[in-house]
Each structure stands twice: as C-alpha cells, then as structure tokens.
Automatic annotation (TrEMBL):
Superkingdom of origin: Bacteria
Gene that encodes it: polX
NCBIfam families tied to this protein: PRK08609.1 (NF006375)
InterPro entries with a match to the protein in the record: DNA-dir_DNA_pol_X, DNA_pol_B_palm_palm, DNA_pol_lamdba_lyase_dom_sf, DNA_Pol_thumb_sf, DNA_pol_X_beta-like, HHH_MUS81, Hlx-hairpin-Hlx_DNA-bd_motif, NT_sf
GO molecular function: exonuclease activity
CDD domains recorded: NT_POLXc, PHP_PolX
Localization in the cell: Cytoplasm
Catalysed reactions, semicolon-separated: a 5'-end 2'-deoxyribose-2'-deoxyribonucleotide-DNA = (2E,4S)-4-hydroxypenten-2-al-5-phosphate + a 5'-end 5'-phospho-2'-deoxyribonucleoside-DNA + H(+); DNA(n) + a 2'-deoxyribonucleoside 5'-triphosphate = DNA(n+1) + diphosphate; 2'-deoxyribonucleotide-(2'-deoxyribose 5'-phosphate)-2'-deoxyribonucleotide-DNA = a 3'-end 2'-deoxyribonucleotide-(2,3-dehydro-2,3-deoxyribose 5'-phosphate)-DNA + a 5'-end 5'-phospho-2'-deoxyribonucleoside-DNA + H(+)
Summary of the function given for this chain in its UniProt record: Repair polymerase that plays a key role in base-excision repair. During this process, the damaged base is excised by specific DNA glycosylases, the DNA backbone is nicked at the abasic site by an apurinic/apyrimidic (AP) endonuclease, and POLB removes 5'-deoxyribose-phosphate from the preincised AP site acting as a 5'-deoxyribose-phosphate lyase (5'-dRP lyase); through its DNA polymerase activity, it adds one nucleotide to the 3' end of the arising single-nucleotide gap.
Protein name as it appears in the record: DNA polymerase beta
Species this chain originates from: Caminibacter pacificus
Keyword Transport on entry: no
Keyword annotations: DNA damage, DNA repair, DNA replication, DNA synthesis, DNA-directed DNA polymerase, Exonuclease, Hydrolase, Methylation, Nuclease, Nucleotidyltransferase, Sodium, Transferase, Ubl conjugation
Cofactor (UniProt): Mg(2+)
Length: 572
C-alpha cells in the first residue's frame, strides 16, 4: 500500500536529487509540481491505480505523472529515483533533512568542497570554510551544526505516523497465515510514542517456524537478520527493524505486557512483585514457583494488586501510584472531538477551498471548524494581508448561511508572533477574528527569558485564543524553543488562553510530558490538525495519541465542547 504522501515524497526527492545533480530547472520544477499535486489530492492513488482508473482524467495529471504514479504504486519504487540514488552519495541525501539546507545549498557545498558526508560537512562548518560560500552566514552555519547533531541523535528512529501503515499491513499479512490466532504489535508502537525505534510483534500461532518462514517472505523485507525457533528479526526496505516473537496462549498476557514496556514501567512492576514475594517475567506471574497469572494483561496487573493501565500511560510517570489511588485518567478518544480549530485553506498555503474543507468536516462528523490562514509576515506560506482576510471572512459568512445547521465555520487566523511578542495584524483585523491562533515561525533561538516574554506577551493580548505549536519543534529537524513553561501555563490559565496540541506527525507539541504538566496546572488544551489539505484533517488521530500519553481527558480539551458551549466559552 502506498499513501499519497509516500508517492509525493518520492517525487519530491527526485526533484531534490536532480537539482543537486545540476539538471535542467524545468525538469526539477516539473517533479516538484507533480509531488505537490499528489500530496494535495483528495484521491487515493493507490486505490485508483489498482482499480485501473485512467489518472490522466484527473485535473493536473498528464501522461508522464500518471506513469510515474502507476510505477510507484505497482512496484513500490521509482526507477528515476533509484538511478539518482546510485549516482548521488547518501551523505548528500542525508544533508537534505537538515533544516536550512535545501538542494541548492547542498549542491553549493558539494561543488565547492566535494563534501559527501555529514562528518565532512561538520568539519567544514566548524573550520569556518563554509562561511566563505555566498549566502552562508553564521546563523546558517549554526543551524547546520545543530541539524547534524539532531540527525545523529535521532539515529534511525521513525515517526509513529511513518510506520503506522507498515505496521498495520504487516499485521494483516500475518493474520492471513493459516494457524495464526493473534497478532499484536507491542513496544513503543503500542504505547503510541511519537517516534519508534523498531516494531515488536507478538504472534500466537500453531506452528511458529512456519509463521517465521512466511514472515521473512513479506515483500517489504530487505534483509533477514535472524530466523529462530521463537524469534525472528528482519529489516524492511526503509531500514525499519521488525522483531517477531512466538508466544503461547497461557503466556500471551505476560508477554504482551513485557514487550509493550516501557522498560521503566516493567521494572516498577517487577519490584512490586518482588515485594509481594512474587516474580514477573514474559511468561507469567509466579508465586512459590507456581504460575498464578499470564493469559491476559488484566490478570497480570491484578496478580500484583493493580488495575489495568492503558499502554499510553506505561512510562513510569506516576501511573502506578495513580492506579493505587484510584485516579487514573479516563483518556480522551478521537470520537470526543467535535471540531478542528486550526485549518489552512487555499487563501494561504492550503490546497483546498473553504467549501471543500467544510464538506469534508461534515463528513468527519464535526460541528465546527476554524479557518486559520497565515498572516502577512509569512510570505513563504502565502501569508494574507488585510484586504484578503476581509474577503475571506465575507466568503465564510456566505458559507455559514449555506451550511446552516450542518456545520459552523469560525473566522480565524494563524497570526505570527513577532520578535517582540506583538502580533502580525492590527486590532481592526484581530477583533473580526473569532479564533486567533498565535504562533512563532521565526527566531526560534532567542534566549529562554526573551522567548518566554515573547510568548507571554502574546498570551496577554486580549484577542489571542490559542498559542499554536507552542514549542516550535520539528521532530528530527528543529529543537524545541527554550521556554519557561511553568510561567506560560500560569499565564495561559490566568488569561483563558488555550495551548495547542498540534497533530502534525512531526510536530506533536505540546509533547506528552508538557501536556501532563499543563493539565495539572489547569490549562485548557485544543487538539488541532493544522491541516493543509483534506486528508490531513485526519492528523488529529496523532494529536489524540499524544494527548493520551499526556494523561488527557475529554474535559481538558476545548474542542470536545459542543458549538454552543464553545461559543459561550469564547465570549468569556
Ligand atoms: P523503541 O523500540 O526504542 O521505540 O522502544 P521500545 O519500548 O519498543 O523498546 P524495545 O523495542 O527495545 O523493547 C520492547 C519492549 O521490551 C520494551 O518496551 C520493554 C521490553 N524490554 C526490552 N528490554 C528490556 C529489559 O531489559 N528489561 C525489561 N524489563 N523490559 C525490557
Ligand atoms: Ca520497539
Ligand atoms: Ca525491539
């Protein structure tokens, strides 16, 4: 299965590598446009290709692009990209994931110094030689050095959202095999951690060696590391490691508990068992060498005197005490969301019209949405000006008439927080917005005190509804800003400003730890998609995952309120 995102990524990567190679700019642009068309399309190309649909009937898709998409869906590969990857050193490809380094600059670096690895790049950046290239100021050099560090630290962890389809496909594949009764993906994947190191799959099956044989034949497998009597390990095409373990029925619960982790949670449980004169391992709970539990997780917890603890909470962050004191949270669910308050339309850098978004939102069962396009400073993201936003609001008025009783569209904006904490629109515009998402999009590296002041000034602005993506981090790319959240939380509560859990899979900020702290301080949260096309309205499921890891209940999140309740709250 290929998602549009994956197809688009291959096309965009082809454009980048062609550019590094110094190919004809028109050709480069053609691939880049192709990537954008695929990414923003609401059609499921994988499905269309498999149904034999003629893609050239869709707007924007010519004969070439149609062939590319077909090839990628049918083979999982794109031959032009494969050829380019053979020609271009991996180190240069890696450099593309450093913030601030696009194909143009990577080419510049390569042409000037012949650098082909991150190690070499680091040396040139540190020695001051990189500064000599036009356009490479000290700021950029600093960014590059930070980026190299981040890449190394990230190792080859994958975003949770990146492995989701792979994991679910594998689950389906394994369940198809005769004699397989249960397949469960444990580890950090089951705990819904924002990034996962590898997949840990448990199977209950009649004949494990046969399952293992079948497992290593999975089409995405690139390399079989081991295939043993109860355990096999493979690496997939994208480098992801997958462990498969055989488990018996009698031990299933104990194994699931053990391999779900986290390690820190497991260690605590083991300590409790020992204090009760028991022993816990992946086979069961034992007292006086007699097995007293193991078939289900509930049983395992019960044997050591605890209640069931949801996987997302198993991080040894107080879940065991909370269970003992009967105050485990009743975690929020996706169905609890009744609207989405951060969505971009084609007025700024979104792909869709407001009407298309509204229709999709109705399909998703929402009662309301907010259209929040970028303010004027963000020229790169097609930021709006005063005239444009007023025109947009007129359209929203018209659409609200049209969709009366079906959905309500809030007039909103995502307004830039400027360096001094003031906002990128004047009062005349802000007072016309029902939802004002204030966000930082530049100067991420101000010292802690100044950065905190900047955010707090925005929180104190009477027009601000929400601080969006409050830490500014991009997983694997950009470190979070240095901020005093203790202060920010108390100011947010005082001013009735919401803090966002941004659901973009590489943002997911606030993160789990901050969410838990925010809730303890009484901060109200909002889980938003920050969608730029129809498909990414579904990102909220990742935001929900993160919220659950942060002990979030329905009552902590304002977009679980009904339209009426929310409007009442906004008026306050
Ligand atoms: P990851 O893969 O780095 O995202 O994180 P996990 O949590 O999936 O860790 P992984 O794959 O190394 O191991 C899966 C689970 O197995 C882990 O969550 C807990 C359990 N486990 C692994 N090693 C140990 C250990 O040394 N002691 C205990 N108690 N449990 C362990
Ligand atoms: Ca794992
Ligand atoms: Ca593992």
């Amino acid at each position: 299965m290929m998602t549009n995102g994956e197809i688009a990524k291959m096309l965009a990567m082809t454009a980048d590598l062609l550019e590094i190679k110094g190919e004809n700019p028109f050709k480069v642009r053609a691939y880049r446009n192709a990537a954008r068309i695929v990414e923003n399309s609401s059609k499921d190309f994988d499905k269309l290709v498999k149904e034999g649909f003629d893609l050239t009937r869709l707007p924007g898709i010519g004969k070439d692009l149609s062939e590319y998409i077909k090839e990628i869906v049918n083979t999982g590969k794109f031959h032009k990209l494969e050829e380019l990857k053979k020609e271009i050193p991996q180190g240069l490809v890696d450099m593309l994931s450093i913030e601030g380094l696009g194909p143009k600059r990577v080419k510049q670096i390569y042409d000037a110094f012949g650098v082909t690895s991150l190690e070499e790049l680091k040396k040139y950046a540190q020695s001051g030689e990189l500064d000599k290239l036009p356009g490479f100021g000290p700021k950029l050099i600093e960014k590059i050095l930070k980026g190299i560090k981040q890449l190394k630290k990230a190792g080859i962890r994958f975003l949770w959202a990146e492995v989701e389809d792979i994991a679910e496909d594998l689950r389906e594949y394994l369940l198809k095999f005769e004699g397989v009764e249960i397949v469960e993906i444990a580890g950090s994947y089951r705990r819904k951690k924002e990034t996962v190191g590898d997949l840990d799959i448990l199977v209950v099956a009649k004949d494990y060696p046969k399952v293992s044989e079948y497992f290593i034949k999975y089409p995405e497998v690139k390399e079989v590391h081991s295939a043993g009597l109860t355990r096999s390990t493979v690496f997939l095409q994208n480098g992801l490691q997958v462990d498969l373990r055989a488990v018996s029925h009698e031990s299933y619960g104990a194994a699931l508990h053990y391999f779900t982790g986290s390690k820190a949670h497991n260690i605590e449980i083991r300590k409790i068992a020992i204090s009760l004169g028991m022993k816990v391992n992946e086979y069961g709970v034992y007292k006086d060498d007699k097995k007293i539990a193991g078939e289900s997780e509930e049983e395992v917890y019960k044997a050591v005197g605890l209640c069931y603890i949801e996987p997302e909470l198993r991080e040894n962050r107080g879940e065991i005490e909370a269970c003992r004191e009967n105050r485990l949270p009743k975690l929020i669910k996706r169905e609890d969301l009744r609207g989405d308050l951060h969505i971009h339309s084609n007025y700024s850098d979104g792909a869709n019209t407001i009407e298309e978004i509204a229709k999709k939102a109705i399909e998703l069962g929402y009662e309301y949405i907010a259209i929040t396009d970028h303010s004027k400073r963000l020229k790169v993201a097609n930021g709006m000006d005063e005239k444009k936003i007023l025109r947009q609001f007129e359209e929203i008025d018209r659409l609200n008439e049209k969709f009366k009783g079906k959905i309500y569209i809030f007039k909103g904006c995502e307004v830039d927080i400027l360096e001094d904490g003031s906002l990128d629109y004047d009062e005349e515009i802000l007072e016309k917005c029902e939802i004002v998402n204030a966000a930082i999009h530049y100067k991420f590296d101000l010292p802690r005190e100044l950065q905190t002041k900047r955010v707090i000034k925005a929180i104190n602005n009477p027009f601000v509804t929400t601080i969006s993506h409050p830490t500014g981090r991009i997983l694997h790319k950009r470190e979070e800003m240095s901020l005093d959240f203790e202060l920010i939380f108390s100011e947010a509560v005082k001013n009735g400003v919401f803090l966002e859990i941004n659901s973009q899979p590489d943002r997911l900020d606030l993160n789990d730890v901050l969410i838990k702290q925010a809730i303890e301080k009484g901060v109200k949260l909002v889980i938003n998609s920050d969608a730029h096309n129809l498909k990414s309205l579904n990102f909220v499921k990742y935001g929900i995952n993160q919220a659950r890891r942060g002990w979030c209940e329905k009552k902590n999140v304002i977009n679980t309120l009904s339209l009426k309740e929310l409007k009442g709250m906004l008026r306050e």
